[in-house]
Amino acid sequence: MKLRSYMLIGFFLSFMLSIVPLWGNFTNAVTPTAVAPVSAVSFTQGVQKTVLDNGLTVLTKEVHTAPVVSVQVWYKVGSRNEVKGQNGISHQLEHLMFKGTTDRPVQFGRLFSALGSQFNAFTSYDETAYFGTVQRDKLEALLTLEADRMENSLVGPDQLTSEKRVVISELQGYENSPGYRLSRAVMRDAFPSRAYGLPVGGTKADVEKFTVKQVRNYYQTYYSPENATLVITGDFATEPVLKVVKETYGKLAKRRKEDTGTQGRGDVVKGNITASSPVAPTTKKAPIVLKQPGSAALLQAVYPLPDIKHPDVPAIDVMDAILTGGRSSRLYQALVESGLATSANGSAAELIEPGWYEINATAAPGQELEKIGQVLQESLAKLQEQPVTTEELNRAKTQLQASFVLGNQDITSQATQLGYNETVAGDYRFIEQYLAAIAKVTPAQVQKVAKTYLNPAQQTIGFFEPTQPDGKPGASSAGSGRTVENFSPGKPVDPAELAKYLPPATSATDSAKQSLPEEFTLNNGLRVLLLRDRNLPTINLSGQIDAGTEFDGNQKAGLANLTAANLMNGTQTKNALTLAKTLEDRGADLSFGASREGVSVSGEGLSADLPILIQTLADVLENATFPADQLELSRQRALTSLKVQLDDPRGLGRQVFQQAIYPENHPFHSFPTAESLKTITRDDLLGFYQTHYRPDSTTIALVGDFDPVKVKALLNQAFGKWSATGKPPVLKIPSVPLPQTLTRLNKVIPGKSEAVTYIGYNGISRKDPRYYAALILNQILGGDTLASRLGTEVRDRQGLTYGIYSGFAAGINPGPFLIQMQTAPLDTQKAIASTLALLKQLREQGVTEAEFNAAKRSITNSYPVDLANPSDVSSIILDNAVLGLSRSEIRDFPQRIQAVTMAQMQQAIEDLIKPESLIIVTAGPEETVPKGS
Fold first, then answer.
1. Three-state DSSP string of 730-769
2. Which residues, in sequence order, are bridge partners of residue 601?
3. CA–CA distance from 631 to each of 559, 571, 625, 626, 784 (Å)?
4. pLDDT for 473-523, tens place per residue?
5. How many CB atoms lie within 10 A of CB 278?
6. Using one digit for the tens of pLDDT, what is the confidence trace for 126-166?
7. How far apart are CA 198 and CA 781, in angstroms?
8. DSSP category for residue 8
9. Can you list the positions of beta strands (E) in 151-239?
10. How far is it, in rounded angstroms, from Cα 233 to Cα 65?
11. pLDDT at 837 over 80
């Protein structure tokens, strides 16, 4: 079964681990010829299911493609199990599971980080899951830690008080999003008497009232072995690991209480929330209309669906792919290509209990939501009245089937697939019958489910109508740091103190076996890096063209982005729809996006489709035509995106922060404005394309199952005629001095609940000799929101923020050093003061030898996990090449980290930590602005 976007609601940690999404609005799709069913054997082959005496389900799958393992624990409990007045208790408990245990009274995020684990957790409607991926020698340690917190988690007054504050910060951050507010209103109206109608994360009112007794009882009820599934995938031997699992988890006792009316099972009544499917209304409901501060106008429509085991589910998913599966889909063509909307997508939520189908659209500037709703209804009616074409049906099937192969290239995703199927569908092998059924779906079945479930009388539709004109932020103020209070941070956490709580690792993993890419240059100057990986029948393509936003200039800001966005809008032989179908017919994807120092190219597909991927890439890079009508549509999308960015404290704050660092004449100062976007002409795009899109400014990295000899011939054939005259344009990026004094800037955005703050200044480039020391320094300071000094003090101890991070944006040229955090308005100044104090402490006292060595181990231990994902490997190979690093950097990186000395670290602190020169930018509600600024 597909993983769903709704499954990820309530993610506890950001930026730690990403799962390839397999749901909703696909940008890849399928073949117009007859579709052979994708075998599900590869997803379940070798999986062994073991049920311990205490009821714990254990799924093991050996995957010997990389020296890493993934350990996941899935609990069959989510917001579906909550009663009225306790909305969000599943999510609150998820947070508390990181606060330590009776035997290990320490933040578990620090333990995971010390192991080099890439870890995360999430709460959804039906499940709460915890996962970590590590080097294989850390497997037993991860198993020990997960078993410990299954039974012994600390749920006390201190832990609950601080983590309530963090959860409320998270929820208030969601409130900043008009889309979140609209969805909450629509879901409550669609399911007024069901738990699915309540937000997964909970509400501030309910979270504030949680008691220790309530949360402990919830933990005792649901976090029991017989209500959990342990999934282990990766490089291990099954029998010895099962022995460890039985010794570690077998001693845990069943704790689950008898059903008292608060456990969501079947059609039981939970307080006032009924789990049964609601009675369908007989007349169409009036739209829900939210008129609130915001930027873009939004539409959301919801229709009730059956549960995940219903036989209609495969046909519903095929219907969804036909409606919203990429550019060739019906709703994209009807709403986006017509100019009514700037985006349209959909997803089917098929859950333990009856779910829903959801359609979302963002209105183009000047377009009415009622008109979008009317065209939407006409499109759905056509699907109900006329059978779909064979071409559409086959494209949708291939789209769905290919998404599973491409989405399960790494062992973390494979474990997640197994855990989701076992927990929600009740059987890890569910994917087998699901994919077999997908292959058999007929046009008549698609028409039937459209008639059955897309009934206007069952529709709940909502409109978000922004009241703030033109997405312009409110007033701003600037000042020195005079309103920032003084703060004395506690002592840094001693890694030696932490180490006594760490389970032992079995042995070191040899990281020197990473294969190196082959590199060559075509006659026209195009650089290519190839790395063969025969483990999966997939291709991952990463590329960069030296045509980034640094070439824009303020007068034409947005030109690089618009050029990249229009590449797929037509070539000399194919129009936009033909280009889209060429890829979507095969489940492949190719996309472009401009960033500061280049245009990124991202592509993926099944290995058999590599020629199509390469030929399409060559066609658009050599022969793009930039049709005028498509330019206007993309301009409208860019204008809408700009409004949304300026209405988001993260987007506006980052822009103001960057423009405060780099002066107006600096290439990194340039950001699009409505005025600059409106002045860009087709001739501007053609000129930019002809100047900057050159073979000698392009680098491509390919990782996957291919024959290198054949690929070289293919590349020479596809790109052989592409040429350029003269030398490529080169910008001289001026150096930027640090500010002489601390600077404060505040931007007010009406209607927001949470503030976002950026703190920093210009930093270093990737080739700076201090880079590796800076990485270690950053790991200690704020590289991990739970294990770093900033995370320990500002988030974990004080509970002032849902997330706080630091980082060096080191590219070809120096980019910003920055700290980012999200805070409640009344907590912002205290969080800033705490951060400044920690920076001063770091500058004055440095780091300890133990911290230094622990940070090194954390970075080097987690690096093999990156190398276990072919998509990540292609990106790493590309980045190393573009940044001018050696091909062997992918292998040598851990040794370079280990080679950094304490003296180099102290010098990096002296050079790079300058508390007196900080630029501090806060964007958000008016009450965030300090008095007297």
1. CCCCCCCCCCCCCEEEEEECCCCCCEEEEEEEECCCCCCC
2. 543, 592
3. 11, 14, 10, 7, 41
4. 666 666 544 334 456 677 787 888 888 899 987 655 555 688 999 999 999
5. 15
6. 999 999 999 999 999 999 999 999 999 999 999 999 999 99
7. 37
8. G
9. 228-234
10. 11
11. yes
